[in-house]
Amino acid sequence: MKAPDPTRRLKKRYVRARYIGSYDDRKVQIELLSLFGELNLGKLYLKTAKHDHAQKKIVFRCERSKAHELAGALSLIKSVRIIPERISGSIKGATTKP
After folding, report:
1. Closest Cα partner for 48 from 38, 57, 58?
2. Measured distance CA(72)–CA(17) in Å, rounded
3. pTM value?
4. Average pLDDT across the chain, whole number
């Protein structure tokens, strides 16, 4: 099977956020579903890329054009306080830079 053209590949962005309280992935997914709806949540291509329990930081991977929407929606979640800190094009830039 051939790899897809570079123009058809998923263009990713990484959103680093810190959270206050206990993080539950299932509750966050349910609240994002209520904010975006099924169709738009699917278009986000959301995935947890990295999770640091000690520092209470998490990095989400999403589609490039939806990164700012995701950052705004994360700040609206009520079950756990999530504060978006940085949007980056690489996971290294999202995790290492202040």
Report:
1. 58
2. 11
3. 0.90
4. 93
